[in-house]
Amino acid sequence: MNELLPAWPLLSTFLLASFVLAVTPGPGVLYILTRSMVQGRRAGLASVAGVALGNLGNAAAAAIGLAALFAVSALAFSLVKIAGALYLVWLGVQMLRAREQAQEAISPPPATSLQIFRDGVVVSLLNPKTTLFFAAFLPQFIDAASQPLAQSLVLGTLFVAIAAMTDSIYALAAGCLAPVLRTGSVRAWGRRLGAALFIGLGLRLATDSR
């Protein structure tokens, strides 16, 4: 397992970045909160499971593509790392430039737990930005010379697990905390925090000599 994870300083950066990104309020969190408020915590947890499975599929797709690319040449690995770091910076800049939109959440129609789970999987799998995010994020923490596919799968699974845990907390607490978490000030705070993380992480990784 030690061969599949980066050294602790870099691993700690990955864990911290994954946690902050996971807890930052976004469309996925708002969807889970809405399901929890409309149909209860069971529905919220079903949506968490569906989104997590879809994200895992995106992480696996990104890992397979990255491993195939890295097998071609070491230069490809370096180029992808640099491009990924710059993409993270660009995401941060876009988040800072984005204007807060005062839109009320639309309550989804009632559905069974299985339907909610299925919808969460489909929504996640059909979001190309998720796969692109993994393709930009994961290469910063793997060593192309040592089982890149296995490393990507392990780190992707770890990220999804962290996101699933934080999303579950949101779902369980939705009854009393959701109205606060959906306020404009909290969303604005989350957007700025995510932007700062993307930019800082991208700059750090772009200048990393590893």
Outline the structure in words.
- The protein has 210 residues and is mainly α.
- Helix 1 runs parallel beside helix 7, helix 1 packs antiparallel against helix 8 and helix 4 packs antiparallel against helix 8.
- It is built from eight helices and no strands.
- The two termini are 20 Å apart.
- The longest helix is centred in the C-terminal third of the chain and has 34 residues.
- Helices cover 78% and strands 0% of the residues.
Secondary structure: elements and pairs:
Elements: H1 8-23, H2 27-39, H3 41-70, H4 74-97, H5 113-125, H6 128-137, H7 148-181, H8 184-206
Determine the mean pLDDT.
78
Biggest β-sheet strands, sense, barrel: none
The number of E-state strands comes to 0
Strand content is under 5%
Order of helices and strands: HHHHHHHH
Work out the count of structural domains: 1
Any key phrases for this structure?
8 helices; 210 residues; 0% strand; mainly alpha
Quick overview of this protein structure:
This protein is mainly alpha-helical and 210 residues long.
